[in-house]
Each structure stands twice: as C-alpha cells, then as structure tokens.
C-alpha cells in the first residue's frame, strides 16, 4: 500500500473533533449508493419491459416478410417458399394476405375497421406463435358445419383480438361479416364483397395495436374476399436467430435477386419475374423500439443527477478536510512530499467514497432486482397491463456502465479540492501552528 492511500484511509476514519466531516462522508457514500441502485433498477426495469414487448411482437409476427416491390399479388408463392428454404438460417416460411376490411357483428350491426390476415393454419404454426395467444375457443379456421348453422350450412372460422371483441361485444360462436371496401368511395354504385364467418377463437397478445384491430381467417377465404385469385400479399419467414434477422433478410434478398436474374436469362420461371424486398421485425416496429431506447437512456441521464448530488457532497467534504488538515499538509510538504503526492492523497480519499458507494449500490440494486424477478413482490393489474408483475431483466453491460460512470463522476469531483490542497505552501500552512 502506498503512503498516499494509507494517509487517505486515516483521514476517512472518524475522530472526535472531525466526526462531522465523517458524517458528511457517510452521507456522500449513501448518495452514491442510492443513485447507483436507482440506475441499476430502472435500467433493468426498462430491459424487462422491452423484452416483454419484443417477445409478444415476435410471437405474433414473423421475423422477416418478403414483399413485392410493386405491391402486386405474389401468385407463384410456393416456388418462392421452396427457394427461401434453401437460404441458410431460414427455418420455415408461409404465405399470407394482409388487408383492411369492415367487420360487422350479426345481427345487431355494430362494426369497426379491422386488419385482416389470411393465413395457412398448418404453415403458420411453424412461423409464428399466434396459436399460443388464443385465450378463448380454438385456432380453427376451416369451413365446416358449426353450432348455430342451419342444416346443410357451413361457416368458415375467424380469430379475433380480445380488445376488438370486447369493443364490439363479440362472443365465441357469433356470426360476423367482413366487407371488402377497397376501391369504393361515397356515392359509388359498387357493391362491396361480403363474407360471413363464425368466431371460433379470441386471441390476446398483450399489445393493444394487435388485440384491438387484428383478425385472422384462412388463406383461401382471404383470397376470395379481396379478389386476389391465387395471389398473396407476401411470404412470412422464420429464422433461427431473430437478432440476426436483418442480416438474414439481406441474404434472402440476394438469393431472390440471383433467382430473378437466372429466370430472366432462361425466361421460364414466372415466380421470379417480379422484384422482391424484405422487411424484418425491427424495421416494422422501429419507431416503438427507438422510443424505448431513447426513454431508457434519458432516464439513465436524469438519474445520474443523484450521483452528481453525491459528488458535490464529496467536493464539500474534501474541501473541509483540506481546511482541517492544513497543518498536516504543511508538515508533509516540509518532510519532502511533492504536490503530486498531496493531490493523490485527496483523490484517493474521494475515490474510496465513490468505490464504496458504487459497489454497495450495485449490490443493493442486484438484490432488489433479483427479489422482484424471483418473488414478484410488485404485481400489476392484468386487466390494464399485458403482464401480471413488474418485469425485470438484468444485463451485465448496464451494471458495468453504471459503475464506471459513477466512479468517473466521483473521481472528477475530487480533482479541484485535491488541486487546492497541493497548492498550499508549507511555510504558510504551519506559520501559526
């Protein structure tokens, strides 16, 4: 141990006439502790909410969507799916139809605009996890006789979001009608295409955007409703690593571009006559995730003010110590101590306060996060939030960044008092002693 650190530790110990200075030191440690713990807990809380939102988005939608660059229906989608299966890291793919329609509840007539997704139920299970979100009824979109149908009548199934069902008063087994209003305007004489369905299931993802506006029907029914014949809107793709979805999407675009070039050269494959592009799950919700990231780091910046308050306490403590130890500084300098050594003594003293407060704050923050993650002390009303307890997800990088930032602030706070101490002339320091 260097003598500078040894002297700094002695200055931190309480004596009878310097006990007030030690109390301020303890307050400074407590301020750093509270600030670090608050930062760790808040960042872990943001991570938990972001993780929950991400899991629900990824569970309901595919990792990558392949779409036509001219927004034309994709007709030879089976050939596209076969080509996508050859791309590395692609796990499964399924065609889908995505469009808007008017949903009316029969017979009372309450209605609302909805987003209709036509899917292949068999393939969809391999690409998304929508079946896991069905809370009432079943994932049944087939056309068959159902309870309430007339003898010889059959009804296709429809899956509806819980928020939408609650808003319209829809229950399982109820008849609803979907109307395709595309291309129509006020005063038009055209008659919309209408198809009647039976509600066979109600799903809840926990995301209001989906639960209040999405409905699912079978792919053939969607093609007939929106007059797509054999076409689909796009291809939904699942990959083996969702965090690399953008990179894999770029590989998909390259593979389809090569296939298109070969098709144009041979002139025999209509599936690759059009140009395709990809949209990954992060691009689809980039505004949401950007907002969550900005909110997280703004909170980080604001909560650092707590540590800054503790840093000011460290500054005031060291200034008081410098005034208290003026005689000691003069004696040390008269014995040969350099200004650099004197400065190092007070930097060490302030840094010890920062290190102790930071370590204790990280431990307290970890303990609080672990307790909430394990025992879920803080519950949330499930009818308001999509989760029943406050979500926590701790990350090492957050602990490291908070610890480094805290110790940097505390160390910077020691520079001015330490510099003032180093500037004391030994003769002036001990003249009146």
Q: Order of helices and strands, N to C?
A: HHEHEEHEEEHEEHEHEHEHHHHHHH
Distance between the termini: 30 Å
Which whole number gives the mean pLDDT?
A: 84
The total strand number stands at 11
Gross geometry: elongated
Share in β-strands: 15-25%
Total domain units: 2
The total of helices stands at 15
Poorly predicted runs are: none
Class of secondary structure makeup? alpha+beta
Q: Strand order across the biggest sheet?
A: 2-3-9-6-8-7
Largest sheet: 6 strands, mixed, barrel
Give the radius of gyration: 33 Å
**Helix proportion of residues, in percent?**
40-55%
Structure report:
There is one protein chain. The chain has 433 residues and is α+β, with helices and mostly antiparallel strands. It is built from 15 helices and 11 strands. The protein has helices at 3-12, 19-60, 77-84, 121-127, 162-168, 208-211, 219-225, 245-266, 281-284, 286-324, 326-334, 339-375, 396-413, 415-422, 426-430, and strands at residues 64-68, 90-105, 111-119, 134-137, 143-144, 155-161, 175-180, 193-203, 214-218, 234-239, 276-280. Helix 2 packs antiparallel against helix 13 (396-413), helix 10 packs parallel to helix 14 and helix 12 packs antiparallel against helix 13.
Topology:
Elements: H1 3-12, H2 19-60, E1 64-68, H3 77-84, E2 90-105, E3 111-119, H4 121-127, E4 134-137, E5 143-144, E6 155-161, H5 162-168, E7 175-180, E8 193-203, H6 208-211, E9 214-218, H7 219-225, E10 234-239, H8 245-266, E11 276-280, H9 281-284, H10 286-324, H11 326-334, H12 339-375, H13 396-413, H14 415-422, H15 426-430
Parallel strand pairs: 3-9, 6-8
Antiparallel strand pairs: 1-10, 1-11, 2-3, 2-7, 2-10, 4-8, 5-6, 6-9, 7-8
Helix pairs in contact: 1-12, 2-10, 2-12, 2-13, 10-12, 10-13, 10-14, 12-13, 12-14
